[in-house]
Amino acid sequence: MKDYSNYFYKKMPDENFFVDIFKKEHNSTGPAFNIHWHEHIQFFYITEGEGILNCNSKKIKVKAKDIVIINSNEMHYIESLYDYLSYYVIRVGLPFLFSNQIDSCQTKFIAPLSQNLILFKPLVRNDNDILNCINKIIGEYFNKEIGFELAVKSYIYELIVLLIRGYIEKILTKEEFNSQVNNLRRFSDILKFIENNFIQKITISQLAAMANISNYHFCRLFKQITGKSTIDYINKLRIDKAIDLLYESSLNITEIALNCGFNDTNYFSRLFKKYKNISPVEFRKNSIHI
């Protein structure tokens, strides 16, 4: 059983049907959810708003009608750029596509997909065939007319065909896949440490020693996995924690800075404005009137 801080596991609503679809809405800027990874393949269908997809070392701006693909074992999160972002989440457990009869379809495509050896590109845009397929999957899932399970399964097969024909990014060897998983396991403890100790001083040397690698190698791997430099990741986490305190507490700006790991209030204010394009004082004033 995996027990990693950024590993995400959620049971399927129906244990006999390995597809889960739900809609999410966010009414503020910033991360829509915490950075994490999981073993199933996942699709985000953006319905309204704009955001930034952070997936491994890539940053991609997304907008309405875009489809985001998260491969298994990819560290990811989405940031909302404005005050409203909505999207559907489609979770697919690929083993449910297996049949009892082993054939070329299963050997050539479904098995490598379920073993996470075929990686898709993260963004689908202006592709009406895939967009129509996604809409059919969502419609069948929520309408739940008789035979909807068959319909959903057939459209997922169609979606996989379209992705294989136009959106394969890389085919991993078993060695590459194992290396990817080992790095995720190693860095989950690092990210958990940062989350639990962001108030304290954290150095790259300290984190690299925890991972038992050199500072240079640590920085390279950290950015590859999270899409951010170590310093940027820590500062962003601290600013996000400060936003929570600005919303929810009566602490003054100096107290908030200290409670978020900043010993210099002026530096905190400059950094806050860099990330949010507004000072913490102005942010609090605006939040009071919301």
What's this model, at a glance?
The protein has helices at 104-114, 128-143, 148-166, 174-197, 204-211, 215-226, 230-248, 253-259, 265-276, 280-288, and strands spanning 19-26, 30-31, 41-48, 50-55, 58-63, 67-70, 76-80, 85-92, 118-120, 123-124, 168-171. By secondary structure, the protein is an alpha+beta fold. Strand 4 and strand 5 form a beta hairpin.
- Sequence stretches where pLDDT stays below 50 over 5 or more residues: 1-5
What is the name of the CATH class of the largest domain?
Mainly Beta
CATH architecture of the largest domain: Sandwich
Separation of the first and last Cα atoms: 43 Å
Q: Mind summarizing the main beta sheet? A: 5 strands, antiparallel
Shape: globular
How many distinct domains? 2
The secondary-structure element order is EEEEEEEEHEEHHEHHHHHHH
What share of residues are in beta strands?
15-25%
Predict the CATH topology of the largest domain: Jelly Rolls
Overall helicity: 40-55%
Please provide the count of β strands: 11
Overall structural class, as computed from helix and strand content, comes to alpha+beta
- How confident is the prediction overall: mean pLDDT? 84
Helix tally? 10
Strand order of the largest sheet: 1-8-3-6-10
Radius of gyration: 21 Å
Explain what the structure shows.
With 290 residues, the chain is an alpha+beta fold. The chain folds into two domains: 19-171, Jelly Rolls (Sandwich); 232-288, Orthogonal Bundle (Arc Repressor Mutant, subunit A). 47% of the residues lie in helices and 19% in strands. The protein contains ten helices and eleven strands. The strands form three sheets. It has a five-stranded antiparallel sheet, with helices on one face. Helix 2 packs antiparallel against helix 3 (148-166) and helix 5 (204-211) packs across helix 6 (215-226). The protein is globular and about 65 Å long. It starts with 18 loop residues before the first strand and ends with a helix. Residues 1-5 have low confidence and may be disordered.
